[in-house]
Design a protein that fits this description.
This protein has 14 helices and 17 strands. By secondary structure, the chain is an alpha/beta fold. It has an eight-stranded mixed β-sheet, covered by helices on one side. Strands 5, 6, 7, 8 and 9 form a five-stranded parallel β-sheet that branches. Strands 10-11-12-13 form a four-stranded parallel β-sheet. The mean pLDDT is 96. The protein binds zinc ion (ZN).
Amino acid sequence: MKQSLFAKHALLGDGWAKNVRLSWNMNGDLTIVQAEAIALPHEVQQGYVLPGMINLHSHAFQRAMAGMTEIAGAGPDSFWTWRDLMYRYALHITPAQMQAIAAQLYAECLRHGYTAVCEFHYLHRAPDGAFYANMAETAERVIGAANATGIGISMLPVLYSHADFNDQPLRSDQRRFSTDVEQILQLIQQLESSRNAQVEIGVAPHSLRAANVGQIRALVAALPKTRPIHIHIAEQEREVDACLAASGKRPVELLLETQQLDQRWCLVHATHLNPAEVAGIAASGAVAGICTSTEGNLGDGFFPLPDYIAAQGQFGIGSDSHVSHSPIEELRWLEYGQRLRLQGRNIAQVAGQRRVGDFLWQACLQGGAKASGRQVGQLAVGKRADLLILDDQHPNLQDLPAAEVLNTWIFAGNDNLVRDVIVGGKLVVQAGRHVEQERIQREYVACMRELRRL
Ligand SMILES: [Zn+2]
């Protein structure tokens, strides 16, 4: 395959540039990003090219449950009743099924514009609660799905030791997640050989409920210094109340006081924050991982986006439970949730960037790249050649000035405008279809046939 591309318009770090030549090496790293270039005779000129989005929070196996938990139970439904159902599913999935589900999910993510994913992976053990003969079996299956589809992955093995604050013992239905610090470090060690330009290995203490302050400190201290660290935090008010009851502190307050947060950290959800916590996360350099479609599905609450932007906080988006696999839906919900909450318009913007779509896409590229710990999120020399080519023949985009493209893509209509996707220099989506789509779908459908019998 050709290792270069000519774009009439390409989104660079400081905005849209004209006539950009992009070249990459055999490893898939960009080696030339030249604006105001001159197209060679017979060179195909693409219309609008931009960096692929990073999906900074994923539990791949939950893709299999999407749409299955929208039936009311006898009492009021909540995050916690949803979680009980999710656990029932989680107890049965085999490693082969996990791989089939993840491949389907990742192919869908790629087709909609995500070129990287951070996988918050906690189904480590077999259904009976024992480790597989290969301790890294399930993590390797998920990495295998990423490699087969072409998406870049940051695998984050999850430390999950307790059922709740005060080191409550795990419930029986949490037995597949059970890990201590030593086991996670052993897992990371085993996964080291999977690392390459497409695969990074980090870590994820599940939450302050499931891992205590001392465990998180020990884990981070033993981790190589450049690796990403993700944690679920302050997703639900009940969690905030339980943390206050157990420690006298709110979750983010406790995390800020007990850990050295920096740009390696991704605080997933961080929904329920007071002003001091907003300022604290922003000042630490950590990334807030906002998962609006899932947060909406689970009734979590609203992230305090305008305050956080005003504090110059970094953020990115994730599809989490995978009720959606489109960055467009994620960003639209992120903005619309705030409009509904505040009864205002054009919330996500700053003095230097008043276009909401452009601000959101660029901010989430930066935040997502940090959270991934990988060289992604920007069309610049040394970064991965992770590119989206939009369908410039779609009526929404034909003859459109580049400055209008992101707002139109994000806020107008429901067609998928991603035509081709290149990840690490390899074409993985062509004319809207993943290059392995038939096989991946066949395996997923067969897997779901088995799972629905449960
Ligand atoms: Zn999550």
